[in-house]
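Archive transcription. Copying these from loose printouts into the bound notebook so they stop getting lost. Printout 1 of 2:
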Amino acid sequence: MKTVTIIDYGMSNLRSVSKAVEQVAEKNWQVLVSDNAKVILRADKVIFPGQGAIGNCMTLLNQTGIADVIRQTLENKPFLGICLGLQTLLTTSEENGGVAGFDWATGTVRRFVNPLIDSDTGEHLKIPHMGWNQVHNNHHPLWTGIPENSRFYFVHSFYVDPKDSGIIAGTTSYGGIDFTSAIAQNNVFAVQFHPEKSQHVGLTLLKNFLDW
């Protein structure tokens, strides 16, 4: 039986992620939630969801040793990052006064800066960016069966700004800013939105990850 392990570092609500993956997993998949290095490294595929502040996240990952496990996983194992699981992949974040990430992708995690103005209505937009928004997707197997400009669910105040545009797999517009909402390279795919909260298109993406 194949295994997909969802990384538990003590700071994320994992129930909705695990339930969504279980919903699309076929009988030959075992879905695990674990903070055990051996369990994570033995998995066929790994999902790293995160929420909250990146400073606390990276501190916990380093204290528990899971940071080293993630670095190993990023080298050769199919990896899906969600929300902070995307942001931690970059070099550094402006959040919490500046926090070093895994530097898997060169770039900076930047904060949305006021004022953000809706181009259609002229109204001021709130930070965090919360709710449904369109994703313009580039060609990648994880977008299979997902129509262009499908709407996914977002909750974030910071967005990734990778230096290499070649890894950008999806973009989204908010308040006049076209930000990167998905990146992909080799065995890694990571998104800013929450597929587990994005109904049919989110479940399709999770199923595509298992099939990838």
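Printout 2 of 2:
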Amino acid sequence: MRYFYNSWDSAYKSHFGAIARNQSCQFTIRLPEETPLDFSPVLVVFRTGFKERFLPMNVKEHENGYVTYTTDLIPKYSGVHYYYFSYTSNGVRHYIKRGDACHGTLDQGEMFQLTVYNEDYQTPQFLKGGVMYQIFPDRFCSSGKMHDNVPSDRVMREWGELPYYKPDQNGHVWNNDYFGGDLDGIRSKLDYLKDLGVTCIYLNPIFESHENHRYNTANYRKVDPLLGTNEDFRELCKAAKTRGISVILDGVFSHTGADSIYFNKFGRYPTPGAYQSEKSPYYSWYHFWGNKEYESWWGIDTLPNVDENNPSYTKYICGDDGVLDYWL
């Protein structure tokens, strides 16, 4: 099958996946020969907060009823770049965007993404040739240990039951049922993981959160009480290290939870969050407008977006004694 574009195929994109800064990457699209073009197609590239760049594409060859057009991109900046293709036919502008994981579709879809890394970046040694095992903590293994300070509004399920997954009568999925997997449970399985050949554990979020996926962070400096304590996490890391296993945390820093010490939409926490007061130290992290409306991740109101470039937020996460330092 002929596609307009396929980001996983070297015939369309000369390098699979990420590329280095200042490295040339060739992009190619295919259009039917009978498509009348008013102008040459263009590759449209941009980074968040910057203007679009339009790179003209030139005819490469004619083959089997298609014309291929190509252009080269040499990115000057590292980071995530977004791109799509555009052409004008009989005065109508058309787009080629991502329809699924890698294929281009006409006049619909999302942006393609291109990750650009610094030329001197070196993959950490512990990842090279290793085996990474991802764990969703609530559903991996329960130690059976009783944990303190678990919020009373959590719905505890029996291991092996069917999770709640359907929306309620108002169309809301609460994600508030838990099976009790915890850090001590993971620690009890380290020998099993080592026997599998695992060299690195990737943990889905473990910070305090009030939904079972824990991507709605409530406190970046505290392990969720149902998983254990900060000390339990340190013990897990120590035990993993003795077996030659590294541990990676999923740090969710593009948004927080609405139910958090930072936003505190539902008043769970004693100090005012950004939703409650403009005087909150966290207010500048978020974007508000109108009557308490705010920007959120993919429009999901339980996940208010943060401005990662806000100096206060950057310092809180990345500064001296910040969140990253805290967990090292």
